[in-house]
Task: structure prediction
Amino acid sequence: MLLLGQIFEALAAQFDARLIGPADLPIAGLAPLETANAEQLSFLSNPKYQSKLAGSQAACVIVSGALEAQARERGAAILVDQPYLYFARVTQIWKQRHSLAPAPGIHASACVHPLAKVSASAVVDAFAVIEADAVVGEGAFIGAHCVVGAGAHIGEQTRLAARVTVTEGCRVGKRCILHPGVVIGADGFGFAPAGGRWEKIEQLGAVRIGDDVEIGANTCVDRGALGDTVIEDGVKLDNLIQIAHNVHVGAHSAMAALVGVAGSARIGAHCTIGGAAGVLGHLSMAEGVHISSFSLVTRSINKPGLYSGFFPIDENADWEKNAATLKQLHGLRERIRQLEAQAQTQNKAP
Result:
């Protein structure tokens, strides 16, 4: 349990916020507006849900200054310009204060190669494997049954949850979080046709992941065929995402679950891709491009903005004809409107 004043003071240097209510108000947890009780802290960031504010039983709510009157009428509140961001930082404080930090060291059942370099402040959990010439940085956590391949590098304060695999030669930056089942550096999908069969193209690149990256459960980032697959600083990947070989994802981009990005695509910084969307190979997306869920990117996008769309599958020749016709529909509609207007004018003529 924390006091409201403790939470407020912990963020005082990061936000220009105001506290309404007693600093000694006990906070036992965090909860949504609808279910929060008299010992829990909640937040409201979207004004369209402000009708729920008055009925909330929360001990305190985090809201914008525009809702000060409603918040005061209800009870204790923290007023801040960015309630959602403020609440995010509160969740971080809460986890830091209530999580048990494991003691540094290597579990007796872990297998660490004599040539591996593991910081004395790192944690290597049960049955993990650290191969030759791998490096595990200060304060890193290697979860149970993880594999860190030969020559791989895990940065400072990075956390690998259980069953994460980082294969040989791959690098993960500082303060990253890789959730259970993540695979970094599996072979990319590369095969050459050879007389009715497939000849494997050895994948000779690696994966380079920047700092402050978070990767969701069972997501795969394949190693490059020749150069490296690159995930820049601050990228956020949800669960069950496939990043193919030689893809380059720009800083602070984010992708929701089930996104697939084909080989050698380049995604700019600060892009977002909605759930189950796809990006075809060798395409590029400019900085600030946002793709709606279930959309399919079939051409390079050079202008920032929001893009949506998916065309039904068909025999390719028919699909190309239909796609070309579809692009003319707007012009055809305008021509029909003009013809209708002319017809109406002619009909009214004496």
Observations:
- The chain has three domains: 2-98, 105-307, 321-348.
